[in-house]
Amino acid sequence: PAMPGKHCVRVGIDDLRDYINWIPFFAVWKVRRDSDEAAKLRAEAETVLASMSAVGCGADCIYGLWNAHSQDDAIVIGNEVIPTPRQRVESADGVQLALSDFVAPEGDFVGTFAATVNDRIRTMIEEARADDYRLILLQSLSDRIVEAAAEWLHEQVRKKYWGYAPDEAAHPRDLLRQSYQGIRPAAGYPSLPDQSVIFSIDRIMPLSEIGISLTENGAMNPASSVCGLMISHPDSRYFIV
């Protein structure tokens, strides 16, 4: 892999369009994705994306690649011991997984990542406070933009920055089906449910470098932000703890 360390990356709306997963967007609005209402909403969202692109909106990302190893049900990166809870019930193949199972006891690498909306999107959201419909539209789009940025960043890491899958040829639509090697479990999500992991990631790789601040309970500001780990093991997969 590349040398351990952290790097910041900016990505524009136009580079993220193909990575947007619209299914959760429609779920926020409680519309069926194959309905006329969804088609109208998608058209409005595309118009907003075009206006965002015109004024330089996008996402700010940071990633790090680190020497790491597993220790019991934890992943160790430097001085940080990140607990990775084990499943309480067996999965379909009869095992109880923890993310640490996919990291070697010595001599391995693990990535960290974070993505958030850039300052121009934050400004658009603030300016929409008096218009409930536009505010919800911008906020729900921002969530999709950040998730798209995480998907885009993960692809860059796999193919170039970490480079463990340089010949990967998946189309962005395939990426949304997770048809690639490796996973990026996000803090607070089913495979890594402990929100306090965010503090460990922040100590390893300061999230403030891309404008993310943390509350005392580990919530990220802006709310349209995501952070987590990147694991390259070919058998790694997501699961519910």
Keywords:
single chain; 8 strands; 7 helices; globular; 241 residues; alpha+beta; six-stranded antiparallel beta sheet
List the helices and strands and how they pair.
Blueprint: E1 5-12, H1 13-16, H2 22-29, H3 36-54, E2 58-70, E3 74-77, E4 80-83, E5 108-117, H4 119-127, H5 132-161, H6 172-175, H7 197-204, E6 213-214, E7 220-221, E8 225-230
Antiparallel strand pairs: 1-2, 2-3, 2-5, 3-4, 5-8, 6-7
Helix pairs in contact: 2-5, 4-5
Let me know the average pLDDT.
93
- Strand proportion, as a percent range, falls in 15-25%
> How many H/I helices?
7
State Rg: 18 Å
Number of strand segments: 8
Structure description:
With 241 residues, the protein is of the alpha+beta class. Strands 1, 2, 3, 4, 5 and 8 form a 6-stranded antiparallel β-sheet that branches. Strands 6-7 form a two-stranded antiparallel ribbon. Helix 2 packs antiparallel against helix 5 and helix 4 runs antiparallel to helix 5. The longest helix is centred in the middle third of the chain and has 30 residues. The radius of gyration is 18 Å and the shape is globular. The mean pLDDT is 93.
Give a summary of the structure in a few sentences.
This protein has 241 residues and is an alpha+beta fold. It is built from seven helices and eight strands, in the order E-H-H-H-E-E-E-E-H-H-H-H-E-E-E. Strand 6 and strand 7 form a beta hairpin.
